[in-house]
DUF3597 domain-containing protein
Amino acid sequence: MSLLGSIVSKILHPFGTSEAQAAPSDKPASTEAQPTSGGSAPASTATSGGTSGGPVDVEAVLNDMAAKNGQKLNWRTSIVDLMKLLDLDSSLHARQQLADELHYSGDKNDSASMNVWLHKQVIKKLEENGGKVPADLKD
């Protein structure tokens, strides 16, 4: 499984899923509720478990993981900390591999710029794959 697939799987499908289901989509997923015939939108039950069929609350899942983790990790701004929180390899080589998967066109030796870009792209991919992402993390 790709690194991006692992990230998406661990956040959006925390209770396990097949590799085919965990593969990130190239198409944006609609996360907006459609109005019912009564004119009001149905209540959304976005949970960290993802069992409701609605969008998975990315912030709730990651905050829950962070609360159970012994390290103080800033997943909101750091791709390294996000990968550590997910128990994934966060080495420069792994991040360069993720950059390749996401078609990064910048200098992969400029890790600071690459890391900022990677974090934004991962958050974007989580949203595209059905995650409910906090507004302050969107571009």
